[in-house]
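Postdoc handover notes: sequence design on the structure in folder B. Input tokens:
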């Protein structure tokens, strides 16, 4: 397979800046002060799963502080089943993110947003913009200024080799709150039928310890830990622990799972492409451990409180785990940000050895609770 040398996917983020500027320019023309007493607020947050997980606490906090308002949200299509479970959310509308991932192919008809006293735009996309510009609202607020300041903050911290503010803190600031932890049960309202449906999955039907594995999409090699290393790791785990190993991910990850499972002489299980994101959140909540690369599911595991081993590739250090039950293996350490965009023969993630991950897993299961650790 021909390897891409440049990762254009992450460059799409810059489209959001231009859309924020466009909204800032037109908001005086589309605002309607007569909508000020509607009692409804619309939050627009069309982003990837991992980014949304960094905002979910701030959104729930905002809903609590505005419990006299009706709160609607616009998100990317895969997120809808989970966002519908957030306590206090009335309606969930969908629009593709600027990244237009394959998971975002779901189109919905008859989306009829309300008249709003305020629209708060945390993240934006061309499709979300087309929805917003036809909505009657008394006021529109965007995250543009916060993101511009945050960009300079991150740059300064990276130059000084210091950890920047986390994205979840910026989301609290954009929504006028103060960063705090919120228990899982106070964020989402899952029904008994939701839990029953998940417990009936064949991969979860026994009492062995459950280890969730997420190897991640393979579209960018700089973030991929090799299949051969996953095979060696799973062999070690199988030899040392009586557990059930369960793969999760999108349809595109089936090929990687098929190759890994064919090289093992014991049974592993797959939920790849079989569950939606709300069901995945419950799978993570009901499982014992998570091992995976930096991704949306690992951020979900953090919210679910699942003990995790996280293998980091290149990326901004703004998604650090919060639940005190994670071990992070990071050879990147804020250096070589170019690997987000340009292919290099020897990636930082390739320096992560199987023995390191296995030792981290052993440490994880030997202690009931710990603060997040960095290797």
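Designed sequence:
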């Amino acid at each position: 397979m021909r390897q891409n040398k440049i990762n254009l996917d992450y460059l799409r983020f810059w489209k959001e800046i231009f859309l924020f500027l466009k909204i800032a320019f037109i908001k005086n023309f589309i605002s309607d002060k007569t909508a000020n007493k509607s009692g409804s607020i619309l939050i627009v947050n069309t982003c990837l799963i991992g980014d949304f997980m960094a905002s979910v606490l701030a959104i729930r906090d905002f809903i609590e502080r505005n419990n006299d308002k009706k709160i609607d949200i616009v998100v990317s299509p895969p997120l809808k089943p989970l966002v519908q479970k957030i306590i206090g959310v009335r309606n969930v509308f969908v629009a593709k993110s600027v990244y237009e991932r394959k998971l975002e192919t779901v189109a919905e008809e008859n989306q009829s947003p309300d008249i709003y006293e305020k629209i708060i735009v945390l993240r934006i996309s061309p499709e979300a913009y087309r929805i917003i510009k036809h909505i009657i609202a008394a006021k529109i607020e965007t995250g543009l200024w916060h993101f511009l300041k945050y960009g300079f903050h991150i740059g300064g911290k990276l130059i000084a080799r210091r950890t920047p503010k986390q994205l979840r803190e910026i989301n609290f600031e954009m929504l006028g709150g103060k960063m705090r932890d919120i228990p899982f049960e106070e964020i989402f309202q899952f029904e008994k039928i939701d839990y029953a449906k998940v417990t009936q999955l064949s991969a979860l039907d026994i009492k062995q310890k459950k280890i969730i594995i997420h190897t991640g999409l393979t579209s960018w090699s700089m973030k991929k830990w090799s299949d051969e290393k996953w095979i060696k790791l799973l062999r070690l785990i199988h030899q040392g622990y009586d557990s059930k190993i369960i793969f999760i991910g999108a349809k595109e990850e089936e090929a990687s799972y098929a190759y890994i499972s064919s090289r093992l002489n014991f049974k592993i299980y797959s939920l790849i492409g079989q569950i939606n994101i709300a069901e995945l959140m419950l799978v993570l909540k009901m499982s014992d451990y998570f091992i995976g690369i930096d991704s949306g599911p690992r951020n979900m595991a953090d919210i679910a409180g699942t003990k995790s081993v996280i293998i980091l590739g290149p990326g901004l250090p703004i998604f650090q785990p919060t639940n005190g039950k994670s071990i992070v293996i990071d050879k990147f350490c804020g250096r070589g940000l170019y690997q987000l965009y340009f292919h290099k023969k020897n990636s930082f993630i390739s320096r992560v050895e199987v023995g390191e991950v296995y030792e981290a897993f052993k440490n994880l299961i030997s202690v009931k609770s710990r603060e997040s650790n960095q290797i």
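Context for whoever picks this up: Residues 368-372 have pLDDT under 50 and may be disordered. Don't rerun without checking with the PI first.
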